[in-house]
Amino acid sequence: MADELERLLDEVERRLCHRRGGGEEEPTAAEEGRSAKVLMSAGSSKEDLDDIIDEICNDSSFTKTPLKLKSNSASLTPERNKVVVQAYRKRCCPVYLGGSLSPSGIGTNISKRTCDQLRCTACDFRVSLFNDYIWDQSCDYLFFRNNMPELSKLRAKMIKKKGARAYACQCSWRSIDELTDLQTEQQLRWVCGKHGE
């Protein structure tokens, strides 16, 4: 049964590649050592199998929709090769934290940007960030648990510092001055929550 399913999936894959210009001719069942009886053992005809395969290939959930692209540049010209293009609903990899002077957006190894869509997996809360502030040394878990996300209450323990950025969710907090890879902060359970348009 598993072999028959594997053969059928191989045939669907070959037909799909062939239709999209895969370039190779489609081998017949006899050339592969398969008999027509194996594929039609469920009591279906060759036309039924072709119809099923066509239905699978034409299913809209299998077709790839093009990414919506967003540019950070005002004008796109062919000679401008340094245009930063960000894909819709994309995650940072790796995730960077940084001060207020660091650019925000989708972070990659090439484009080192601080993620502004952080989410905590421990408390399932969105991470808030405050430019040009750091957290006071006296901050503790209960302070953030009781006061997030109300800025008016959080200001009591925020200290103004140019170029820094204060990050916090309901269970963790950090003050960052320079670009930092989130992987170096092992105790933080923050991830990129995907970037929108």
Strand order of the largest sheet: 5-6-7
Which stretches are poorly predicted, pLDDT < 50 over at least 5 residues? 20-42, 61-87
So how many helices? 5
Class inferred from helices and paired strands = alpha+beta
User: Distance between termini?
Assistant: 46 Å
Order of helix and strand elements from N to C terminus: HHHEEEEEHHEEEE
Beta strands, count: 9
What is the radius of gyration computed over CA atoms, rounded to a whole number of angstroms?
Answer: 27 Å
Average pLDDT: 75
Helix content: 10-25%
Strand content: 15-25%
- Label the overall shape: elongated
What can be said about the biggest beta sheet?
A: 3 strands, antiparallel
Describe the structure.
It is a single chain. By secondary structure, this protein is an alpha+beta fold. About 25% of the residues lie in helices and about 20% in strands. It is built from 5 helices and 9 strands. The protein has helices spanning about 1-20, 35-40, 45-60, 140-145, 150-155; strands at about 70, 85, 95, 120, 130-135, 160-170, 175, 180, 190. A 3-stranded antiparallel sheet has the order 5-6-7, with no helix packed on it. Strands 1-2 form a two-stranded antiparallel ribbon. It has a two-stranded antiparallel sheet with strand order 3-8. The longest helix is centred in the N-terminal third of the chain and has 18 residues, at about 1-20. The protein is elongated and about 75 Å long.
Mind sketching the topology for me?
Blueprint: H1 2-19, H2 36-39, H3 46-58, E1 69-71, E2 85-87, E3 96-97, E4 118-120, E5 128-135, H4 141-147, H5 151-154, E6 158-168, E7 173-176, E8 180-181, E9 190-192
Antiparallel strand pairs: 1-2, 3-8, 4-9, 5-6, 6-7
